[in-house]
Specification:
Shape: flat
Radius of gyration: 27 Å
Distance between the termini: 66 Å
Strand order of the largest sheet: 1-2-3-6
Helix content: 25-40%
Largest sheet: 4 strands, mixed
Number of helices: 1
Number of strands: 6
Structural class: alpha+beta
Strand content: 25-35%
Length: 106
């Protein structure tokens, strides 16, 4: 039973219109997320201001250089043993990798 006398061609056109609307909404969402990513850029004038900044891109105020966060590639390896009571004892902590600290680079 078809609702309100709809024919198969009307139903097909309604489904195709819904898929078009969905496609347009997805495009708008993707475009908005790209624009929002660019808005996360911060302007910094001194090295002291870099502490605590979580932004992936910053602009250096003095020369206008765009800087990007280079993440840490170090792996922290904890070697632990247990005492007679079963409590963990950390014997050594190794930092393996070429870049132990994240930094900004232009």
């Amino acid at each position: 039973m078809r609702p309100w006398g709809m024919t198969p061609s009307n139903i097909e056109s309604m489904i195709s219109n819904q898929s078009r609307i969905l496609a347009v909404l997805l495009i708008v969402i993707v475009a908005d997320s790209v624009c929002a990513e660019n808005a996360k850029e911060v302007v910094v004038s001194s090295a002291k201001e870099l502490k605590g900044i979580k932004a992936k891109k910053i602009t250096w105020k003095k020369d206008g250089a765009k800087m990007v966060l280079i993440p840490s590639t170090a792996k922290i390896v904890r070697k632990s043993t247990f005492d007679r009571l079963g409590d963990p004892i950390v014997k050594a902590v190794e930092i393996k990798g070429p870049n132990p600290v994240p930094f900004y680079m232009d």
